[in-house]
Amino acid sequence: MIPDLRAKHTWRSRKSTLMTALMIAAVVVLAIPLIAVLYSVISRGAGSALSGFPDFFTKEIPAISRREGPGMGPAILGTLLVTGAATLIAVPLGVLGAVYLHEYGASSRFARTVRFMAMVMTGVPSIVMGLFVYVMWTMRFGYSAFGGALGLACLMLPVVIGSTEQMLRLVPTQLREAAYALGASKSRTIITVVLPAALPGIVSGALLAVARAAGETAPLLFAVGAAKAFNAHLFTEANTALSLQIFNSDLAFPAAEGRAWGAALTLVALTFLMTITARVFTSRLALKR
Amino acid sequence: MASEDPMAVVQEARARSNSPRIVVERRSAPSAEDTPVLFEIEDAAVYYGTFRAVRDVSMKIHEKQITAFIGPSGCGKTTMLRALNRMHDTTPGARVTGKIQYHGADLYGHDVSAVEVRRRIGMVFQKPNPFPKSIYDNIAFGPRVNGVRDRAKLDEIVEKSLRAAALWDEVKDRLRASALGMSGGQQQRLCIARTIAVEPEVVLMDEPCSALDPIATARIEELMRQLKSQFTIVIVTHNMQQAARVSDRTAFFTAELDSKSDQRTGILVEYDATAKMFSNPADERTENYITGRFG
Questions:
Q1: Residue A253 phi/psi, 5° resolution?
Q2: Does a structural domain hold residue A245?
Q3: Which of these, B188, B175, B164, B186, lies nearest to B140 by C-alpha position?
Q4: Interface residue ranges in chain B relative to chain A, Cβ cutoff 8 Å
Q5: Which of A30, A86, A103, B86 could, after both became Cys, cross-link A149 (CB 3.0–4.6 A)?
Q6: CB count, 10 Å around CB of B107?
Q7: Contacts of residue B149 in chain A, CB cutoff 8 Å?
Q8: A38 within a domain of the structure (yes/no)
Q9: Taking 60 as the threshold, does the pLDDT of residue B23 lie above it?
Q10: Is residue A197 part of a domain?
């Protein structure tokens, strides 16, 4: 006798259909705010950002808010300056710290304490970092892009430490042992085998931290100032950033509101670019292995 | 790479070792007595934390010979092998007790550097573990660690090592390609080439053929026979035929249940010339193991 292999519409298959439908619904609900944010930023920001291209990206910010006309150049430069400096501080420190924690400290009391502090640091509100930098730096040296960079670096540091340590943990023991068996010292093994093997992960972790930090407002609030002219100096004079310009814009005036939306779009595009770069870089490196 | 007939490779390997299938008669026992002692192990034990993995090992390993460690899983063969080049130093909680002498000097003396030890006592692992670098850089890694910077010298070492590992003809046109694109057998021969590139005195091999097919295995065994003239080889293997085929001396380990701590600890049961071990072992446990009655 041939057994009946056709699907039976039992309660089990119905439950399966129901659950699948629920999951699809969850994805749709998740996607709504994402798409809505993107839609509103693009629809309201594209006009002012792209009219008279590339003026918006190169001209200074009008000194009087109500004046029509483009200009977010100084804020773009400021964001790049602040984020770049923060990266130069946080990534080397974070990577070296993680190498210590994973390769040398391991489960020593000191390493465990530092790891715990780094974990706590990820939870510190960014405005607290802003106040910290204000007290430690700005009150002594005045407004500067560097002050903002310090605040961002404080935010990025625990993220970089965490992701780097995770990546170091993923490097197989067999690779380390291969190096040891050839007479390589521990430091040599770390520099020539472990770090290169973990590099794609470290880079993408760092770039994601940078992308996250680029849009931060609170740590810059008390440290950077709100200049409207270009300032390429890292350590001196008030600077500005896209996030600060959005925060400070005088929404009573349509012209200022338009520029704020343009700045928002620019910021979203910048972080998007960085995230994409991180992904491409990671997959490129991964392919070469 | 597979241009040759696979069976021909196996036959050739067998022919060159001029051995019948039953290998016991192949080697004469006296050769095992000839060469000087390199390692002298006395009452060695290895602990992982409080767990004693292997105990009471006393044996002498001779220069320019192949010594095989055989025995069932969990009997401490690999653990003992790793004690010979201080690989346990890198494992937190592991420690070696007893005495292991190398050239008559204590391998674990406090002024002895594990890094210096491993430059002279290399290791090939169970799973091929090439670095995610090019073939060339894999071989050049060891010499670079040892301070060779000269390009021409490195080229020469790379070619010599690859030739010694019978890999040169297969890879000479793609030295810059990633080592991870090679087959398992090629990777393992690369790891052997990488090990001999630093010109060690001893090559420790931890089940080097367990991940390989019979053809690749035959090649590596053939390679070991050739390398024996220059290096002292200690090999851990699960494969008794392999021990019988390639080794001069064989050590049989087994695990014993300790009634007090309820832990299984490895012990050395018998150590003798391979021919004797496989024809007329002194211990009943050895006989049971090699005839397949347990393990």
A1: -105, 125
A2: yes
A3: B175
A4: 85, 87, 90, 92, 115-116, 118-120, 122-123, 125, 127, 129-133, 141-142, 145-146, 178, 180, 191, 194-195, 198
A5: A86
A6: 21
A7: none
A8: no
A9: no
A10: yes
Contacts of A255 (CB under 8 A, 6+ apart): A62, A65, A66, A67, A68, A69
* Total number of domains constituting chain A: 1
Identity of residue B34: D
How close A289 comes to chain B (CA, Å)? 5
Is B118 close to A106, i.e. CB distance below 8 A?
Answer: no
- Does residue A287 belong to the interface with chain B, where contact is any CB pair within 8 Å? no
Give a yes or no: residue B46 inside a domain: yes
How many domains are there within chain B? Answer: 1
The mean-pLDDT minimum among A98-102, A209-213, B12-16, B244-248 falls in: B12-16
B65 part of a folded domain: yes
Residues of B in contact with A175 (CB under 8 A): 129, 131-132
CATH number at residue A82: 1.10.3720.10
B139-148: average pLDDT: 93
Question: How much of chain A is helix, strand and coil, in % rounded to 5?
Answer: 75, 0, 25
For the domain that residue B143 is a member of, what is the CATH number? 3.40.50.300
| Distance in angstroms (rounded) separating the CA atoms of residues A12 and A16 | 6
A223 domain residue, yes or no: yes
Residue A278, pLDDT > 50, answer yes
Identify whether B295 is part of a domain. no
Q: Which range of residues forms the domain containing residue A231? A: 73-288
Is A33 near chain B, with CB under 8 Å?
no
Select the more confidently predicted residue: A118 or A5. Answer: A118
Is the per-residue pLDDT at A25 higher than 80? yes
Domain boundaries, position B220: 6-290
Convert the pLDDT of each residue in B67-84 to its tens digit.
Answer: 999 998 888 899 999 999
Q: Is residue B238 part of a domain?
A: yes
User: Which ipTM score applies to this complex?
Assistant: 0.82
pLDDT tens per residue, range B258-277: 777 788 899 999 999 999 99
Instruction: Give A188 to chain B, closest Cα distance, Å.
Output: 8
A250 touches chain B (CB under 8 A): no
What pTM was estimated for this model as a whole? 0.80
Strand, coil or helix: what is A239? coil
CA distance B131 to chain A (A): 6
Which value, to the nearest 10 degrees, does the dihedral of the CA atoms of residues B86, B90, B95, B99 take?
10
